[in-house]
Write the structure tokens for this entry.
Amino acid sequence: MDKKFRENNIQIPFPQRDVHLIQNKD
């Protein structure tokens, strides 16, 4: 989860909130 979250955070230039939502969807 941590790795995916970090990867998404770097890949997606969105705020942490959006990244969290995207991670939740994933």
